[in-house]
Amino acid sequence: MTIHLYLVRHGQTYFNLYNRLQGWSNSPLTEAGRADAVKAGNKLAKVPLSAAFCSDTTRAQDTARAILQLNTHSLDANITEPEAHMEFREQFYGYFEGRDMNEAWWAAGAPHGASTYAQILEKFGPQATRDFLKEADPFHHAENNEEYWQRIERGFKIIADSPNVDDESHVLLISHGNTLLSLMQRLTVNTDANSSHSFDLTVRPANGSVTRIDCDADKLGSDFEAALTVVGYNE
């Protein structure tokens, strides 16, 4: 069963504007963030959506509602509210929730000789960005790499198992900046299906941008990377 996923990064929030880590914590959409949601809604207005999902954060739910209001197909099908699940939340940053991003990544990387997120990524890879942050968290509440991906993979299974989703369904998923970037890092490195495409992962996905992924639901349980093929990024 093939599912056509439209992953939209939520609109800009005040924490985005202030350059603060925003995982499970939340802040409202700014005026620009509401405009981001409308822009995404206009892009997807004619996509025949069968279902819509998002995290249980208000920034994701508000973005989803704005998009669905502009989608004539989903309104005809009475899809006015997204399904909200904690599995679709952003990475949990634990003690560093709401902290300045530069400060947080320095705390995570400095003990390993890397003072920025980009340096951690370059020297140690994306897994380390999560593992180092959990290590630096005095409470060790931040998600490490294994904990993070277990939750994200459960989220994709929720979509595949939904009674509203069948073969060739078009599905909206409101996602988050680091989650989208993490998906791209994992998929473009480890799967042949995505290796022939050139995606600029030095650029974080913009608020309100659309990333398109085709999902082979039959492979999700056995090979997560092989199940997902990136069609477009940060559009």
Characterize the structure shown.
There is one protein chain. By secondary structure, the protein is of the alpha/beta class. It has two domains: 2-92 and 143-232, Phosphoglycerate mutase-like (Rossmann fold), CATH 3.40.50; 95-142, no CATH class. It is 43% helix and 15% strand. The chain is built from eleven helices and six strands. The protein has a six-stranded mixed sheet. Helix 2 (31-43) packs across helix 3 (58-69), helix 5 (101-109) packs across helix 7 and helix 6 crosses helix 7 (126-136). The mean pLDDT is 94.
Helix content: 40-55%
Mean pLDDT: 94
| Assigned CATH architecture of the largest domain | 3-Layer(aba) Sandwich
Sheet bearing the most strands, described?
6 strands, mixed
What is the name of the CATH class of the largest domain?
Alpha Beta
- Low-pLDDT windows of residues: none
Integer-rounded radius of gyration: 17 Å
Question: How are the strands of the biggest sheet laid out side by side?
Answer: 3-2-4-1-5-6
Task: Name the CATH homologous superfamily of the largest domain.
Answer: Phosphoglycerate mutase-like
Tally of alpha and pi helices: 11
Distance between the termini: 25 Å
| H and E string | EHHEHHEHHHHEHHEHE
Strand content: 5-15%
CATH-assigned fold name of the largest domain: Rossmann fold
Helix vs. strand class: alpha/beta
Count of domains? 2
Kindly state the number of beta strands.
6
Q: Can you tell me the overall shape? A: globular
Active site: 10 (tele-phosphohistidine intermediate), 90 (proton donor/acceptor)
Pfam family, one: His_Phos_1
GO cellular component, one term: cytosol
Site (Transition state stabilizer): 176
